[in-house]
Amino acid sequence: MKAPFDDAEVWRHWPELSRRANAQAEGNLGFVDRYRGEDDPLGYIAPRWPMEPLIMGNLSAWVDLSSLFDYTFGSGTHGGMMKHRGKWFHPWPYNRPSFVAWRAHADIIGGKVVCDFDLDTAMLMQAELGRTGPTSQCFDWMGEPQ
Asked: What is the reported pTM?
């Protein structure tokens, strides 16, 4: 991030944009579930390491990679946020992936799809993708290798 969340000038429009983007995701046929956040109702993952206080993440489950790609980079609110992400974020400076995908198990409980994704698994998958590159276990926007 370019600044901590308490910098009102940088993040002035972010909460409303995030609410709209989350609502559009949740209305998408390819959407399954999203991480709701530790202390943040918008669902952002707090930094996990003191030496990286300006890293923010999110975690969501989708029926397939193409649905997620269309939502992420399409014409909706999130697509607009991606086009203008330089307002809020520096380019990714680390020698590890900033995005990772993997297959998660989902069940239907009480008529709602519930997915078994969690932060620890996400961190393990990100590290594995960085070590091995795309595999059938974890992959990037290009999908699983054939």
From this structure: 0.84
